[in-house]
Design goal:
- By secondary structure, the protein is of the alpha/beta class.
- Helix content is about 30%, strand content about 20%.
- The chain has 23 helices and 26 strands.
- The strands form 7 sheets. A 6-stranded mixed β-sheet has the order 11-16-15-14-12-13, with helices on both faces.
- Helix 4 links the parallel strand 2 and strand 3.
- The protein is globular.
Amino acid sequence: MKKIGTTILLLVCFIGFSQQKTIDQKVNALLKQMTLEEKIGQLNQYTGNNQATGPITINPNKETEIKKGLIGSMLNVLGTKYTRQYQELAMQSRLKIPLLFGQDVVHGYKTTFPLPLAEAASWDLEAMELSARIAAVEASASGIHWTFAPMVDISRDPRWGRVMEGAGEDTYLGSRIAYARVKGFQGNLGDVNSVMACVKHFAAYGAAVGGRDYNSVDMSERMLWETYLPPFKAALDAGAATFMNSFNDINGIPATANKYLQRDILKGKWNFQGFVVSDWGSIGEMVNHGFSKDNKEAALQAITAGSDMDMESNAYRYHLAELVKENKVPIALIDDAVKRILRKKFELGLFDNPYKYSNPEREQTALNNPEHRKAARDIAAKSIVLLKNEKNILPLSKDTKTIAFIGPLVKEHKQNMGFWAVELPELDYDKQVVSQWEGVQNKVSSSTKLLYAKGCEIEGDNKDGFAEAIAVANQADVVILSIGERADMSGEAKSRSNIHLPGVQEELVKAIQATGKPVVVLINAGRPLVFNWTADNVPAIAYTWWLGSEAGNAIADVLFGDYNPSGKLPMSFPREEGQIPIYYNHFNTGRPAPNETAFNYVSAYTDLKNSPRFPFGFGLSYTTFEYSDLKLSKNKIKNTEKIEVSLNVKNSGKVAGEEVVQLYLRDKVGSVVRPIIELKDFQKIKLNAGETKTIKFIIDKEKLSFYNTALQWIAEPGDFDLMIGSSSSDIRLKTTFELIK
C-alpha cells in the first residue's frame, strides 16, 4: 500500500512538472518567433476608455499598435463587450498573442465591499478572502484577468490618504491579510472565476515622509526587512502572480529602478517567478526624481532593475529597442521579462481561448448574484468598530418611538462606496447602494417615527442648518448623527495635514449633544480621524468607515443589535496630528515615561498624552468577555521546541458575541532593541451568552525571531513576556517564558 501511495505521489509530481515544462516550452517556442519590437510590445501597458457600455471607440493609434502586436496589456477596459473588441484586434496580429486586461478591483467590482482598511478591522481572514473571491468572480466575468490589488503597505501615518487601501500599522496582521486576499483573488489561477493578484507597492510606500503621497522613504535596511517586507513575502507565499513597484524613492533610489528590491530580493532571494509592473507612469517619473536624465535613461534603469512591464510612461515603447541595438540592454533582460508575461498568459489559458473571460451570459449572472450582496452586508457589519457605548445606549430598540437621524451623510448613496470603487457607467447608485437612512428605515418597526435633518455640509463653515437639526433632535427619543469625510477625501493623492473632522461637523455634534438627548455618532471615513470633543462627550460612537453597497443595512444591523459589533482597530487613532506617526509596537527608549502625565526629562510631550486616543486592536461589544486560566506547556524551550499556550475565554454578558483574542510578545533583551509589545497571533471566536471556550496558541522559534544588525533572521536566548488580551492596551493575562540555548 505504501509503495502504491509513493508511486501515485511521484506520478502527481511528474504530471505537475510536465505541465509546467510544457508551458515553458511553449513560451520559449513563441519567443523564438518574436521580433524585438514584438517582444517589447509585450512590456507595454496602456489605458483604455474605462467604459462598460455604450458605443465602443478605440483610439486609432492604439488599434494599429494592437494589430501589430505592440501592446501586451490594457487597463481601464470594463465589460465583456469591450474587452472582446480589444482582444479581437490582438487576434489580428502576426503571432496572435492575447492581451491582458487589468483593473483596480480594490474592494469589489459591481458589489462593493468595505474599504480594505475597514475589512482589516474585522480581523476575519475568511471574510476577507471571501470578499476578494467575490470581487474576482465579478471582475473576471466582465473580462478582467488581473487586479491591481492587494495593497499590503504597512502605514503608521493616517495623514497618508492611501491607508484606506491597506491593512493598517501591524506587520503580522498585515501579512495574514495579504495572504488571505491573494488566495481570494487568485483561487486556482487559470480558473475562469479567478484573477491574477498584483501585490503593491514594492516597497515601503506606506512610510512616505510626512504622510505625503509619492514622497520619499528613508529607513534602515533592518526596518525594511522586519516591518515593511513581510506582508509582501506572505503574499508571494500565497502564490501572487504579479507585483507592482512603488512611486517613492527608498534610501535615494526610486523603487522603479531599485535593483536591490526587484532583482536581489524579489526575483533573487525570494525566487519570484511572476512579473513586475510599474505603477502608472513611474518609469518616466524618475526624470522628476532627478535619477534619470530622460525617458531613455529611465527605460534603461528600470529594465535593468527588474521592472518588466511599463504602465503608461511609453519609455519602453520608444526607447528599449534602441537601447538593445546600442548594446546597453542585453537581449536576455528583454527575453526574461517577456517570458514572465507570456507564462502568465499561458497559465490563464488565454492562448487556448483568448475570449475565455468574455462570456456575456456569465457576466450577467455573476453581476446579479444576490449571494454577493448578502456577503457584502455580513462583511460590512463585521468591519464596524464600536468605540464607545456608555450606559449601553446601543443597541437601540426597533420600537423606539421617535428617532432623529441627522448629518450630511445620512441620505448619501454613492459616498458609501468609498475611494477606489469601480464606477460602472450603467449603475444607478441610488438603487445599487443602500443609504444609511434606508437601512434604518428597513429596520425599525412600522410605529417608529424617523425624522431627518442634514445639519451641515461635510466641509465649509455654514451653520444655517443647525437650527433645524436641533429642532428635530428635540422631538426625538434618541439621535443618530452620521458625520465624517467625503469618500474622495481619503485615497490616492488624498494626503491631509489636518485629519480632524472636517468643516463644522464637530460643532454640530456639540449642538445636538447640548439638547440632552441620547446621542449615537457614526463616523464615516477612510482613515483614522481626530474627534476629541466627540470622543470625550458623546456616549456612543461607532466607526463605520466606508462600507460599500450594503452600508446602510449593515449599519442598521449593528445599531439595532441584529449583529453584535466585533471589529477591532487595525490602526492607532491619534489624539492630535502632532503625535504622528503613532503605533503600538514602538521601542521603550532610554527614558520611557512612567505614566501619562509625566513629561520631565522622559520621552513624552509636554502638552499631550503619549497614548493614542484609541489603541491598536481596540473595539467594544454589546457583551463582555472574561479571560482566565492561562497555561504554558513549558516555561523553557530550545530553538527546536514549541510552547502550547492555552486559556479560557467566557462570554460573561447576556448576548452572543465575537471576540478577537490577541496574543502579544515582548523580547525583554535583544542584540537590537525590541518593541515593547508585538502581535504574534490572534483568533476570532464566537461565544453564546455564558459560554466558555478553551483557546490554544503555539509559540515557536519563528514567533520569537527578528532581524539582527547583519539582517539574519534569528531567535536569541533570553526571557520573553507573553501577553493575551482584548487589545494592545487591554492585556488580561500575562506570564513569562525563556528561550534557552
